[in-house]
Structures
1.
Amino acid sequence: MSATIIDGKAHAARLRERIAVQAAAFAGAAGRAAGLAVVLVGEDPASAVYVRSKGKATIAAGMESFEHRLPADTDQAALIALVDRLNADPAVDGILVQLPLPAHLDADAILTRIDSDKDVDGFHPVNVGRLMLGLPGLVPCTPYGCLLLLQDVLGDLTGLDAVVVGRSNIVGKPMAALLTAASATVTIAHSRTRDLAAVVRRADIVVAAVGRAQMIPGDWIKPGATVIDVGINRTDAGLVGDVDFASAVEVAGAITPVPGGVGPMTIACLLRNTVVAAARREGVPLDMSAL
Ligand SMILES: Nc1nc(=O)c2c([nH]1)NC[C@@H]1CN(c3ccc(C(=O)N[C@@H](CCC(=O)O)C(=O)O)cc3)C=[N+]21
């Protein structure tokens, strides 16, 4: 039996339509479009591609896009000065500083400098704290997109066994927090986990976010489990996930492809966070059930 393929691209397109409705409602009430500023330091080609598709999606959703491209040798003070300017700019509701930054820059200091109410990545310590406490805030885009896909496939997640493979600040840790808040039973596994195969095998939900090409084979997957593959690995064979799709699709109940799974949801959730941030800043009510 072959798994249902979770169409992240189609799901993201529907979400972007609903966001566009809310973005128009915001613009009508506030007298201006919601604005997203993206900062790219250096010219990593993959980052440039992502920034471009994000800019297009922002405009298509009826929001304003501000792009700031800085040379690779930009120093900390100059980047801090730009963040301060964007923090103070009333037309900017969301700020995203593309990661990874060149090694000579202190990424933590930059992310902490962003106004937490404009932190559409949800990486600021204040938003991380809000997520852990269950307070309203801005939630990291990739894990939020994964949660939406899981709820679409499974409905209520209460009591389900979820294993998150990977403990990064941008995916693994916030993913575990969201699944916990959704009343799943959550295990965070990582490179030091003993008998990872056995840990993954007991999961109803597997979220793979380790960044190692095809490291989770189908025979680790419990029959019928839902598999969310966050990995985007460029190999000679093209773009592949952290899950070995060919073998996993034969065992899973549902699985995201790479590309066309989680990636498009990340961008849609960035737009979602931008309109949510804009509405909170201006005190405009939104239909959050649409988002
Ligand atoms: N501050 C920050 N926030 C981010 O959210 C962030 C970041 N930095 N740095 C880079 C990563 C990567 N990322 C992706 C988003 C969408 C796709 C995406 O839409 N991928 C498509 C196409 C992939 C392709 O063809 O290259 C897919 O999976 O179907 C990929 C990658 C966001 N990131």
2.
Amino acid sequence: MTGNIIETGSETPMDSPAKYRVYPSAENFVKFESQKNPVSVPPNSITVSDLKLWYGPVQALKGITLNIPKNCVYSFIGPSGCGKSTFLRTMNRMNDMVPNCKIEGKVMVDGHDIYEKGVDVVDLRKRVGMVFQKANPFPMSIYDNVAYGPRIHGVPKKELDGIVENALRRAALWDEVKDRLKTSALSLSGGQQQRLCIARTLAVSPEIILFDEPCSALDPISTGKIEELMTELKSDYTIVVVTHNMQQAARVSDYTAFFLSGELIEAGETIEIFENPKDIRTEEYITGRFG
Ligand SMILES: Nc1ncnc2c1ncn2[C@@H]1O[C@H](COP(=O)(O)OP(=O)(O)OP(=O)(O)O)[C@@H](O)[C@H]1O
């Protein structure tokens, strides 16, 4: 088999004990060479190596190395200011818009370095969509909000109805809005607006969806709906979520990473992080002793 051999011995705790992974150039699976009978496992969606980021003189990320597998929910937790959102935003280059922001290291999406010269950032943000803390529907109709992305990407008019319906269904909003698609998105409740923003992201067929504290402004019922949605969506998308809510991380995510002062302290399967953390700082944070 041909492909790039990457040493994985020093990566995060969620990595397999296998010494090498072979990333085939064309095939959509990974084999563990050290096993007698190699098994197929999902490849990584995002691979980050030694990522450092500065806002002017302030270093916000201090050498982060992390693999995010495909088709999982991955939570980032940690106290305020530890760099969770900054790290999330590096994955679709949202920090490009911040003056004096400097980045070193690598962020690979599906094996391609997204900081390489010549990368089309508009296309990147189509593939790596983002849902923000505060729902931000455009001041236009529900329909036009969802159709906005496909329209600017040149999708023909006759395909729009199907795309809008499909995205609203996937975002579990269709039944609530199907009779008022032409009314203003601003007339929706906060929870509905957040699901509309998810539909807007889905409408451009991303591969990865980044959620930056998507439920922090929502009541428990709306929060439950978004959490259910993340669990459903992971079969087709990779989901990365920043959350301050420990229960939410434990409920929705397959993997969790704990950050502190710009460093990745520990990452692995959520059950391990919550039930058997290896670092005392992780334990202290998840048991509420600080943060
Ligand atoms: N645009 C910016 N310009 C300058 N400094 C910034 C900027 N955005 C974030 N920072 C700084 O970078 C550090 C990390 O911030 P970040 O928002 O990533 O943390 P966080 O863990 O997401 O925090 P919170 O949970 O409060 O949202 C903080 O010290 C913050 O003040």
